[in-house]
Amino acid sequence: MHIGKALAATKKDESQMIVIMGCNLYLMSIVLNGDPSIEHKGKLTCLDKQVKISQLYHCEGLLLFILKDDSRCVVWNPYLGQPRWIEPRYSHRPNVWHRFSYALGYEDKKNKSCRRHKFLRFTDSHYNAPEKQFFWYEIYDFDSDLWTTLDVTPHWRITVCNRGISLKGNTYWCAAERNVDLEEVLADRLICFRFYKEERLAVLLHHDEYNPYELNIWITTKIETEDVSWSKFVRVAKPGFDSYVPFISGSFFIEEEKKVAIGFDDENRQRVIVIGEAGYLRGLDLVGHFGDQRCKPDLCSYVPSLVEIKQPEGGEREQESE
């Protein structure tokens, strides 16, 4: 399908989202009115042949794919149909579980008319004994087509399952104190990698993920170095013993105007849940066959971007988006 045609028919109260299920990408829309609904727009492909995607990251209309059967990564603008392949200096060993984390961001150039995109890749092995700890940070510059190793000594640990969230070119992670016993680790810090700066961020807190009885979502009102202010966006509490507060799995996004949060139900990999105020809860089942369900589903809000992805000198063969 051509993503431009799908986006042209946007309805009132409709939001677009990109979903990864069964190692494939799909464009879906969700209508948030009195009776919310979800629509499967179609499957997205960015190459001549469909690749298997194990992880998805997004940054203001650009998507970063970590592939399942290939050591390379792909950054893609689905609206313009522009992919760029990135070859890492050191393989992440496809088909083998690895400990690398990723982030896509940018810094504004001096003339403010374009952005300088960068790709962060790092690994952090968490051991209590300092002599067994290992961390490696490197960054790829789209303009120079070069990797640079960063000279950093992190004081906080970021787990590999913590995907991070991109906001105005920067990436934020929940992090924990490094030299603490693994059984006592509490991710109670917010760490920012500054490709650039600015704006707002939302976080979700479950008090007990094994038997959830309360869910809170907070949104920032101010983000500065060592000074972050929050306000409560929505709270869902368990009114009784037999009631249920769902556990959102992986990423989520919010719709401020409707005051709801949207994410995957942890107990049903083909159900998207919408959570709002005053006990508002809706489950929306995704109808269809989505391939290998061993791949953990994920989603992100999607707004088309006209930002072009800079290609390396000499260019790459242009390929149309389907």
Folded structure, characterized:
By secondary structure, the chain is an all-beta fold. Helix content is 2%, strand content 48%. The termini are close together.
Shape verdict: globular
The H-and-E topology, N to C, reads as HEEEEEEEEEEEEEEEEEEEEEEE
Quote the beta fraction: over 45%
User: What's the end-to-end separation, in Å?
Assistant: 5 Å
- Give the helix level as a range of percent: under 10%
Keywords, please?
globular; 23 strands; 4-stranded antiparallel beta sheet; disordered C terminus; 322 residues; single chain; mainly beta
What's a quick, concise take on this entry?
The protein is an all-beta fold and 322 residues long.
Question: What is this structure's SSE topology?
Answer:
Blueprint: H1 3-8, E1 14-21, E2 24-31, E3 37-44, E4 53-59, E5 62-67, E6 73-77, E7 82-86, E8 100-108, E9 115-125, E10 134-141, E11 146-149, E12 156-157, E13 165-167, E14 170-177, E15 189-193, E16 202-206, E17 214-224, E18 227-237, E19 248-255, E20 260-265, E21 268-276, E22 281-285, E23 298-301
Antiparallel strand pairs: 1-2, 1-23, 2-3, 4-5, 5-6, 6-7, 8-9, 9-10, 10-11, 12-14, 13-14, 14-15, 16-17, 17-18, 19-20, 20-21, 21-22
